[in-house]
Amino acid sequence: MEVLFKKYPKCKTALQWWCNAYYTAENDVQQMSRFSISRNKWLKEFLMQNPPDFPISNKCCEYAKKKPAKRFIKETYADLEITGIRKAEGGIRSANYKSCFSESKSKGCNTYRPIFWYTDSDKRDYEKFYGVEHSRCYTEYGLKRTGCVGCPFDQKINEELDVIMQNEPKLYQAAINIFGKSYEYTRKYHEFQKMMKLQEKDRNKRIRR
Ligand code: SF4
């Protein structure tokens, strides 16, 4: 990491991910991040053996969500934003926060998360009490959580695509047109994982003999 960081000082976050390291502002190694590359087994090996031939980025998050939200805060002089993140939902979103309130000078306004501490059972009680009606994605299609349709960063994208294909064929086609190459690449990685797993099993068998 030190060697790479010296060479690419502006690429800190990506290098932390690639090297399984979490660095403080002073550049001391503290711990391995829960979002390191090794959280996805054999991903590094796969990327090195199969470099992608198409661009991969999270720029749609940047330009469709983050930047417009920042612009709105600026244009409306907002001093507080309220978001619906719950700690119990897990994932990157909730792991980024420690409490229901945070101050941010860089963002230009503070953030309040009123349902941050709601447990899953609190959520069920709330739904019952207020008669909350959920989208068909949950009640008919069987999805457990939703975000952007067909987001290629979704860990379970293949299962989600099957659901979309069955229930929303036109939406499925739209997702394929936009993210088709990413889906193919993810499938290839899952095949690679299976192959590596088998090879590892064989190796372990031979060692035990
Ligand atoms: S599709 Fe995925 S990467 Fe794109 S904006 Fe939605 S969540 Fe972000």
Question: What do you see in this structure?
Answer:
The protein is mainly alpha-helical and 209 residues long. Among the domains are: 2-39, no CATH class; 78-130, no CATH class. It has helices at 2-7, 12-19, 43-49, 59-75, 91-95, 120-130, 136-139, 157-167, 169-208, and strands at residues 22-23, 29-31, 80-82, 101-102, 110-112. β1 (22-23) and β2 (29-31) form a beta hairpin. Iron/sulfur cluster (SF4) binds next to α4.
**Tally of extended strands?**
5
In quaternary terms, these chains amount to single chain
Outline the biggest β-sheet: 3 strands, mixed
Series of secondary-structure elements, N-terminal to C-terminal: HHEEHHEHEEHHHH
Tag the structure with descriptive keywords:
two-stranded antiparallel ribbon, 209 residues, globular, 3-stranded mixed beta sheet, binds iron/sulfur cluster, 9 helices, mainly alpha
In short:
With 209 residues, the protein is mainly α. It contains 9 helices and 5 strands; from the N terminus they run ααββααβαββαααα.
Topology, pairings included?
Blueprint: H1 2-7, H2 12-19, E1 22-23, E2 29-31, H3 43-49, H4 59-75, E3 80-82, H5 91-95, E4 101-102, E5 110-112, H6 120-130, H7 136-139, H8 157-167, H9 169-208
Parallel strand pairs: 3-5
Antiparallel strand pairs: 1-2, 4-5
Helix pairs in contact: 8-9
The chain binds iron/sulfur cluster (SF4).
Iron/sulfur cluster binds at residues 58, 60-61, 64-65, 147-148, 151, 153.
